[in-house]
TrEMBL record:
Keyword Disulfide bond carried by entry: no
Oligomeric and partner information: Ring-shaped heterooctamer of six TSN and two TSNAX subunits. Interacts with GOLGA3, TSNAXIP1, SUN1 and AKAP9. Interacts with the homodimeric form of C1D following gamma-radiation. Interacts with TSN and C1D in a mutually exclusive manner.
Any one GO BP annotation for this protein: cell differentiation
Role of this protein: Acts in combination with TSN as an endonuclease involved in the activation of the RNA-induced silencing complex (RISC). Possible role in spermatogenesis.
Family: Belongs to the translin family.
UniProtKB keywords: Cytoplasm, Developmental protein, Differentiation, DNA-binding, Golgi apparatus, Isopeptide bond, Magnesium, Metal-binding, Nucleus, Spermatogenesis, Ubl conjugation
Full protein name: Translin-associated protein X
Basic and acidic residues: compositionally biased ranges: 16-28
Protein location: Cytoplasm, Perinuclear region; Golgi apparatus; Nucleus
Length: 290
């Protein structure tokens, strides 16, 4: 009882240290005081930052959707009679994606990109995947990060509309030039996702009787896998996590090339797709996927 009374008495004495008139005055805070004005400015700054973050999330979602549509379009090349028409249409779609990235660059003007990177990284990864897929179809090579970033320099005229002829890198935002740089992590994750699309392209090509594309894709994926192997566990966690999926895609493509090399002459072309679909299911079961 004595402890309870003591603790209760302590709480009572603690409250009695503050007279009633002072506590009432504390409730009536002066809104024009320097402290309140400072906190109001903090509130406005945080609200503006939160609104900007939400706008960037919506733009990143649009970039992701349009980039996926471009990838789906590029997959039609394996069965389309005229490849140039598909590439032209894909370039138009990628220009639309870059318009969204231009809006992202305007939102990030004067801001630290790394504070908002989480909001836009998904869209940038999908854009890298779409651009690198188109570049591989054209050149059978991997587009560099510098080439991607050169396409993300936007110059506007006096009316604020984009000018298709960007100036040199020496100009900045005050001269109507905006730029957005893809980070190395965005680039690596986009390239890692590209390997899955190349695996699908390989299988589709085989189904259409194209026996050259699988060997080109296999050689390219081997080089990409070797490059990721050099990074190992020293890179970001997301990169090392996708290395397993990359290895699976490489195994499926190499299995297709093996079947073409060994049994290609005895399997009719219209049955190749069925053979590879069965072998792909067998690989997935061995890897514990199914």
């Amino acid at each position: 009882m004595s402890n309870k009374e003591g603790s209760g008495g302590f709480r009572k004495r603690k409250h009695d240290n503050f007279p009633h008139n002072q506590r009432r005055e504390g409730k009536d805070v002066n809104s024009s005081s320097p402290v309140m004005l400072a906190f109001k400015s903090f509130q406005q700054e945080l609200d503006a930052r939160h609104d900007k973050y939400e706008r960037l999330v919506k733009l990143s979602r649009d970039i992701t959707v349009e980039s996926k549509r471009t990838i789906f379009l590029l997959h039609r090349i394996t069965s389309a009679p005229d490849m140039e028409d598909i590439l032209t249409e894909s370039e138009i779609k990628l220009d639309g994606v870059r318009q969204k990235i231009f809006q992202v660059a305007q939102e990030l003007s004067g801001e630290d990109m790394h504070q908002f990177h989480r909001a836009i990284t998904t869209g940038l990864q999908e854009y890298v995947e779409a651009v690198s897929f188109q570049h591989f179809i054209k050149t059978r090579s991997l587009i560099s990060m510098d080439e991607i970033n050169k396409q993300l320099i936007f110059m506007t005229d006096d009316n604020g509309k984009e000018n298709k002829t960007p100036s040199s890198d020496t100009q900045d935002e005050q001269f109507g030039t905006w730029r957005l740089r893809v980070t190395p992590v965005d680039y690596l994750l986009g390239v890692a996702d590209l390997t899955g699309e190349l695996m699908r392209m390989c299988i589709n090509s085989v189904g259409n009787g194209d026996i050259d594309t699988p060997f080109e894709v296999s050689q390219f994926l081997r080089q990409v896998y070797d490059g990721f192997s050099f990074i190992g566990n020293t890179g970001p966690y997301e990169v090392s996590k996708k290395l397993y999926t990359l290895k699976q895609s490489l195994a499926k493509v190499e299995n297709a090339c093996y079947a073409l090399k060994v049994r290609g002459s005895e399997i009719p072309k219209h049955m190749l797709a069925d053979v590879f679909s069965v072998k792909t299911e067998m690989i997935d079961q061995e890897e514990g996927i199914s």
